[in-house]
Amino acid sequence: MMSVGKVYLIGAGPGDIKLITVKGLECIQNADTIVYDRLANPRLLSYRKPDAELIYVGKLPDRHTLQQHEINQVLVDEAKKGKVVTRLKGGDPFVFGRGGEEAEVLKEENIEFEIVPGITSAIAVPAYAGIPVTHRDCTSTFTIITGHEDPTKEQSNINWQRLASDPGTLIFLMGVSNLPKIVKRLVDNGKDKETPIALIRWGTRPEQEVVTGRLDNIVEEVEKAGLTSPAIIIIGEVVNLRDTLKWFETKPLFGKRVLVTRSREQASDLSQKIEDFGGESWEYPTINIKPPEDFTKFDLAIEKINDFNWIVFTSVNGVKSFFARLKSLNKDIRVLGNIKLCAIGPKTREEIENKGLIVDYMPEKFVAESIIEGFKTILNPNEKILLPRADIARPILIDSLLELGMDVTEVMAYRTVIGSRDNEELLTKLKNKEIHVITFTSSSTVKNFISLIENEDLETILNGITIASIGPITSETARSLGIKVDVEAKEYTIDGLVQALVDYTN
């Protein structure tokens, strides 16, 4: 008989994926089935196991994908198949998340469950808008109220008279459609009509939008702004602190969702820097790094490593691949002896130095042409050079070294292949203009991106999207394929690319 599985009821937080708890992320990574809703950031799903099943049960104000009793049954059915089930809910599962109802059903069915609290939007969203829910100069209390209940119904679970007289902060969750009725109930029960109020839509995300006003004009202000759900309503003197304390919207890349096209192994550095500046990175690797299909030439070069005077590394991937192969052949850095090392740029140099080695030469500009210029003054004729690099590397470096009279051995250290991820999600986000910036960090990322959207009208799909390139070689490739480059890094590094983007958008 199959053993019954387990269900984790998890709060995904308010939207920014880094606001999920460590335990919540672990539950996503270990789940066999993930049951998720509309308010949980879909980027969190990228941390799932490759074979994890996804079940969407999201709700909209005017329609439900599944009714609550049907969602409960999904959790029961999946657990009874012996699966580890993660129920991923926006915010916190026990703050108007109906997690209590789901837990009760699981208890009745003798299914083991755990509650993994999340950061509730009631606190986090105002914080991202620069509004503390408490402040010693304003209030020491706050109240969280459902915004779904119709304030005009005869029997209400909300004590409107008490709320109207409450000097603390009032926070209504999911109450945009009821805003006029909420305001009227509060004012009719004695709330000062000049009380500050704010509505915050999609808080903590690039789409975050804030509308402020007073109880007597907020309905008009919201209509003027065209603000719709999902949003929270916060009422009280703390709203006045927003002008002083707002921080998220002042970051230089706020509001920008940036597509990162480099390989997953290298994407994190760029993604982190984008998010440090307030943007949201969306990793969609257009290339994957793979080992060579045949190591014969590579291994032969390593066996005769002491014949070489120089090893020229043109990428971090080249460094990683070389030393991984060295180790697989049961050798270490001692075999390099007096061989001199060249790195094309600071990140490549850093990767070499992490191995305990010192780089002898790095060009001022981080392209192959600059290596040649520098080598003209430091190389002797007939010196032997090992060049471990990608299968699709430009020929200019090896051709130029041969022209200088060098003895060059080029070996394929790794292959770059087109990303295997389904492109439907990418195309949807591009067409919906949910992507604001596309970054290209090499010619191969450009070429593979084009391959992924080859059946689309390039001009239409990229209209209004900023294209950022790491340097002139990448830009040249993009333009040759019909892509207009808006931003080009002055320093051909990840730091240079991000700085160029910041300068361009401000």
TrEMBL record:
PROSITE patterns registered for this protein in UniProt: SUMT_1, SUMT_2
GO biological process: methylation; siroheme biosynthetic process
Alphabetized UniProt keyword annotations: Methyltransferase, Porphyrin biosynthesis, S-adenosyl-L-methionine, Transferase
Tetrapyrrole methylase domain: residues covered: 6-218
Class of the enzyme per the UniProt entry, highest EC level: transferase
GO MF annotations, alphabetized: uroporphyrin-III C-methyltransferase activity; uroporphyrinogen-III synthase activity
Enzyme Commission number(s) of this protein: 2.1.1.107
Domain Tetrapyrrole biosynthesis uroporphyrinogen III synthase: 269-499
PANTHER family to which the protein is assigned, alphabetical: S-ADENOSYL-L-METHIONINE-DEPENDENT UROPORPHYRINOGEN III METHYLTRANSFERASE, CHLOROPLASTIC, SIROHEME SYNTHASE-RELATED
Family: Belongs to the precorrin methyltransferase family.
Protein name listed in UniProt: uroporphyrinogen-III C-methyltransferase
Provenance organism: Desulfonispora thiosulfatigenes DSM 11270
